[in-house]
């Protein structure tokens, strides 16, 4: 699969490494010249540095891993019809006030900014170094769970599959409103580092 990554820091860079290891073609971008990501691309097979609009056009799936407060920079036209995996969290001291959040989860705000994309929230609940190190081979008896929420079933299935491919057990926690609340800072899944079964039990999420 072709995967674009917008924001290639701790989380985006970790996912680039995992997706490359899972044999995907990956295009990574940040806020600067793509040349700044040349060392990342040189260190990983099938990874190329590009601009954010190029990453958006390249990806069948596009991961967004920037500070949430910069969400208006995401290229909406280039993401038409694309599955967008949102790893972001709203961090007030970093992101400042975001009036659009009134009553909405951060992923719903991003979905409104990208009306023609299919936004899924995933990879936002685990510290980046745990995301790097805690995955296990498929078939391991116990794996850490990663919650996934989204309003488009096809897009959500794609994200659930990617979670599985990089060694974690996906947990479908519903739509961007309820599921997003479950995943965001202050929610029961945030920084929980639990198995999938423990995650479901913690908030009474049914097995889907
Ligand atoms: N760190 C964690 O453990 C963790 C865990 C879960 C979720 N998250 C969330 O995931 C997101 C990324 O966190 P992180 O820790 O990976 O951040 P990070 O290490 O600071 O990396 C952020 C990346 O986003 C890029 N970026 C910033 N503004 C951009 C823009 N307008 N357009 C394109 N790229 C832009 C940065 O590029 P430059 O270097 O060029 O500025 C950098 O590559 C945040 O929303 C964070 O809250 C983080």
Give the mean pLDDT: 95
SSE sequence, one letter per element:
EHEHEHEEHHEHEHEHH
Q: Structural class from helices and strands?
A: alpha/beta
Helix percentage range: 25-40%
Outline the low-pLDDT stretches. Answer: none
CATH architecture: 3-Layer(aba) Sandwich
Number of helices: 9
Question: Mind describing the biggest β-sheet?
Answer: 8 strands, mixed
Task: Sum up the overall morphology in one term.
Answer: globular
Order of strands, main sheet, comes to 3-2-1-4-5-6-7-8
CATH superfamily: NAD(P)-binding Rossmann-like Domain
The percent range for strand residues is: 15-25%
Q: Taking Cα atoms only, what radius of gyration do you get, to the nearest Å?
A: 16 Å
Total separate domains: 1
- Whole-Å distance between the termini? 25 Å
| Unique ligands | NADP nicotinamide-adenine-dinucleotide phosphate
At the first level of CATH, the class is: Alpha Beta
Q: In summary, what is this structure?
A:
This protein has 208 residues and is an alpha/beta fold. Helices cover 34% and strands 17% of the residues. The chain has one domain (2-203): 3-Layer(aba) Sandwich (Rossmann fold), CATH 3.40.50.720.
């Amino acid at each position: 699969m072709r995967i674009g990554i917008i924001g290639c820091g701790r989380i985006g860079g970790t996912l680039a490494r995992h997706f490359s290891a899972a044999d995907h073609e990956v295009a990574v971008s940040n806020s600067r010249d793509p040349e700044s990501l040349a060392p990342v691309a040189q260190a990983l097979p099938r990874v190329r540095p590009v601009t954010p609009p190029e990453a958006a056009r390249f990806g069948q799936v596009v991961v967004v891993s920037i500070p949430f407060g910069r969400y208006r920079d995401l290229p909406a036209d280039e993401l038409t019809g694309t599955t967008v995996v949102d790893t972001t969290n709203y961090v007030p001291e970093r992101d400042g006030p975001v009036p659009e959040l009134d009553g909405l989860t951060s992923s719903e705000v991003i979905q409104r900014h990208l009306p023609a994309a299919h936004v899924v929230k995933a990879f936002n609940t685990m510290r980046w170094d745990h995301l790097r190190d805690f995955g296990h081979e498929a078939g391991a008896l116990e794996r850490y769970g990663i919650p996934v929420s989204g309003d488009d079933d096809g897009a959500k299935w794609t994200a659930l599959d990617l979670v599985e491919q990089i060694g974690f057990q996906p947990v479908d926690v519903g739509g961007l409103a309820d599921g997003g609340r479950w995943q965001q800072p202050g929610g029961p899944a945030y920084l929980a580092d639990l198995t999938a079964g423990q995650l479901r039990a913690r908030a009474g999420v049914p097995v889907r």
